[in-house]
Specification:
Helix content is 59%, strand content 7%. The chain is mainly alpha-helical. The protein folds into three domains: 2-150, Fumarase C, Chain B, domain 1; 157-407, Fumarase C, Chain A, domain 2 (Up-down Bundle); 418-473, Fumarase/aspartase (C-terminal domain) (Ribonucleotide Reductase Protein R1, domain 1), CATH 1.10.40.30. The chain has a two-stranded antiparallel sheet. A two-stranded antiparallel ribbon has the order 3-4. Helix 3 packs across helix 7, helix 3 (56-75) packs across helix 9 and helix 16 packs across helix 17 (448-455).
């Protein structure tokens, strides 16, 4: 008897900690305090894949769509005021940051994002039920599908939320890119008087000013930023109101236009309805375009970061024309070693963004007929790219670029030693004669100036003027 009593006691404890919910597949226990319901619980059981959950910006965006839809349904008289008001209050709380721990579905989930949409419906419904004085799970008060999801489908909610979340995160990234552009430009101005050896193919080339190199980096970031802005234009076209297949079934005829206008007011964004609801649901091109632009700037950021690594190489056996800020010890075995850690970090961030772009590309072409079911992986990868680029570029700007120092003497020494300065002689003695000067200088380990003087190709005064390395950094008449 004591054993049986203990078993009954344990069962009672379990029952007190869970509630029973049912769906078309059967019944399931859900934690009694959970704001999610049976559909989310099934998704948690089915999709224990990565441990990654939706980005906060995506939860916010989904909730904004739910709120706007409820506002419109209330205005159109298809949803009662009391229920609508409770749903709107629940949405407001989530947008403010509450209940985020109940959005628990893995980013690798059911196609099209149905699990995420159901998760949002259930959390909002259960909080609305509480607001109306009921207990979580009593869907006779507020129903996740009949009320929270009214006039909607995962198929138009999810891509709309993708757009809003992407725009939101992009608005964080663009100022960060501005800061990098400005920091590089400031270094360009600071380093403008410093002449150094130019290099092409990693071999000696004509001189360039260090500031010119950094100005080039700055312009590159500005142009990439402009490409990103242009690529994001398609995100402002919303397909909300298309419901399941782009026909608008189960929504009021006025719903589509009204919900876009409500989202405009709610977000402050210049949103507009799409030209065709079917195209908006089927095509992932706006996300591909933005991801491609992020890949584009990533490739240039990798190039710039690697230039800085090369220019700072050494400190005793490399180029060491610049010095990057020391941010941490560079070795667990070699005392005093300092590495270009922030540039290395940025490389890895950009490699990830480049890989994310391939995933987005593959997922984009994998849609069939009326729907692209691969939206969850597109959303996850795009939002991750926006997030890590923003954080990576910000850290790189503050902890690397702003603190770069130039070694003027080292730069000048290499500029004078470069075989590339022989190019300045070609207008006077021709290409072939200049090539012989370069070959002899290299063979004898002497400078171009020394070899040109020894051969007497020009007078001493002419050589002093013609082989002035600073003069070589701008177009000049002969």
């Amino acid at each position: 008897m004591p054993i049986l009593a203990n078993i009954q006691s344990e069962r009672l404890k379990i029952m007190m900690k869970t509630r029973i919910e049912k769906d078309s597949l059967g019944v399931m226990e859900v934690p009694v305090d959970a704001y999610y319901g049976i559909h989310t619980a099934r998704a948690m059981e089915n999709f224990s894949i990565s441990g990654l959950r939706a980005e906060p910006s995506f939860v916010t965006a989904t909730t904004q769509v739910k709120r706007a839809a409820t506002m419109v349904n209330r205005s159109l008289g298809v949803l009662g005021k009391n229920i609508a008001d409770a749903i709107i209050q629940a949405c407001d709380e989530i947008v403010e940051g509450r209940l985020r721990e109940h959005f628990v579905v893995d980013v690798f989930q059911a196609g099209a994002g149905t699990s995420h949409n159901m998760n949002a419906n259930e959390v909002i419904a259960n909080r609305a039920i509480e607001i109306m004085g009921g207990r979580k799970g009593d869907y006779s008060i507020v129903h996740p599908n009949d009320h929270v999801n009214l006039s909607q489908s995962t198929n138009d909610v999810f891509p709309t939320a993708m757009r809003l979340a992407s725009i939101s995160m992009l608005k964080e990234l663009l100022p960060t890119l501005n800061q990098l552009e400005q920091a590089l430009r400031a270094k360009g101005e600071e380093f403008n008087p410093i002449v150094k050896a130019g290099r092409t193919h990693l071999q000696d080339a004509t001189p360039i000013r260090l500031g010119q190199e950094f100005m080039g980096y700055s312009v590159c970031i500005r142009k990439n930023k402009e490409r990103i802005e242009r690529a994001s234009e398609g995100l402002y076209e919303l397909g909300i109101g298309g419901t399941a297949v782009g026909t608008g079934m189960n929504s009021h005829p006025l719903y589509r236009g009204m919900v876009v206008e409500e989202l405009r007011k709610e977000t402050g964004l210049d949103l507009r309805g799409c030209d065709d609801l079917r195209e908006s649901m089927q095509s992932m091109t706006p996300f591909v375009s933005l991801s491609g632009a992020l890949k584009g700037i990533s490739l240039d950021l990798i190039r710039i970061a690697n230039d800085l690594r090369l220019l700072s190489s050494g400190p005793m056996t490399g180029l060491r024309e610049i010095e990057l800020p020391a941010v941490q010890a560079g070795s667990s075995i070699m005392p005093g070693k300092v590495n270009p850690s922030m540039a290395e970090m940025l490389d890895m961030v950009c490699f990830q963004v480049t890989g994310n772009d391939l995933t987005i590309s593959m997922a984009s072409q994998a849609g069939q007929l009326e729907l692209n079911v691969m939206m969850p992986v597109i959303s996850h990868n795009l939002l991750q790219s926006l997030k890590i680029l923003n954080n990576g570029v910000s850290a790189f700007t503050e902890k690397c670029v702003r603190g770069i120092k130039a070694d003027r003497d080292r730069c000048g020494e290499f500029a004078e030693k470069s075989l590339g300065i022989v190019t300045a002689l070609t207008p006077y003695i021709g290409y072939e004669a200049s090539a012989r000067v370069a070959q002899e200088a290299l063979a004898s380990r002497r400078s171009i100036k020394e070899m040109a003087m020894e051969r007497g190709v020009l007078s001493r005064e002419e050589l002093k003027r013609v082989l002035d390395v600073e003069r070589m950094t701008e177009p000049r008449e002969k």
